[in-house]
Amino acid sequence: MSVFNRILIVIAALVIFAGAVITLFVACGVSTAQILPYGWAQSILQHVADASGGALASIIVISVIVAVAMIGLLSIEIAPSHKAVSLVISSTYEGVTTIDLDSICVLAEHVGVAIHGIRDVKSSVKENPEGLLVDCRASADLGSSILEIEPELRSRVKTAIEQLTGLHVAVVDIRVKYGSKKAKRLAVS
Fold first, then answer.
1. Mind listing the pLDDT tens digit for each residue in 32-50?
2. What is the structure's pLDDT at 7?
3. The dihedral of CA 129, 130, 132, 135: what is its sign?
4. Which residues contact 49 (CB under 8 A, 6 or more apart)?
5. Is the pTM for the entire model greater than 0.85?
6. Nearest-angstrom CA–CA distance, 188 and 41
7. How far apart are CA 132 and CA 142, in angstroms?
């Protein structure tokens, strides 16, 4: 979404929030209907001030819901958006080639599941001055040798990332667990 659209959403949310709070103040008797300058919305606020019983309760509830919704919208719009971190693979006068860290994770996971005895791999990648730090969490089949899986996974992930991206991999941390709880229950039976 463009910056202009986000600014419009923030301004609209602030105006709606202010309206909800003013309505709430008038409905609760904290302020009079003449709270706004130049008599803006005075007749509407006077109806709010004159309301009683169920109508008053409805106005208060709706004002609170609208105010909370606008706070939520403002927090979403003002909070920094998560942008994918990109690493530069090459930079020449013809242009720049980058790759997202998420793509490197996908590569590591794809390489990992190709290894016999590994069911699933989840990975994360961080950039470090010495190179990439890759963390792989693998789920192995019951009966697979972790002592055989671990070095093969480390070697294949490191080699694939370095060969396919040209980026140096400093560390590949491996955590292996055996299958799921369901698989363990089936193996015990």
1. 888 888 878 888 888 888 8
2. 87
3. negative
4. 26, 27, 29, 32, 33
5. no
6. 73
7. 30
